[in-house]
Amino acid sequence: MLKAGPSSVDPLDMARQILIADDERLSRFLTQSILEKLGFQVELCDDGRGAVEAEATGDFAAIFMDCQMPHMDGFQATAAIRRQQVERRGARTPIIGLSARAMDGDDEVAIAKGMDTYITKPQSIRKVRAALEQVGIEVDAARFAAQ
Question: Which of 100, 102, 116, 136 is the S-S candidate for 121 at Cβ 3.0 to 4.6 Å?
């Protein structure tokens, strides 16, 4: 698992902690940069297995999940995370799918496979903000206006 930011997180900031699972370094960096500008703390992993492990031990406001990754893709990881949440009777963490594919119907496939919403790459601050708000996570309007 890759780490970003401080190794310990204040419990009061857990609602601002977001997991990014993406095998592409540049894409991970872009998503991380956007989220940090919006005031979120970020944890990184580079495949679906890492995302499943991180979700099992972490408390995230949301997960940005690349759909196409080696070892375990984003759809498989989402299914595993949803099973974990049911088994421990935990809250459903919003999962935002990320993909370079922009084909008609891709968003419906992502949602049918357990993701809450879906955005296409390249990510932008507007797309990320809209996705967060769509899953019920508030983005500080003043911070966004400054971008």
Answer: 100
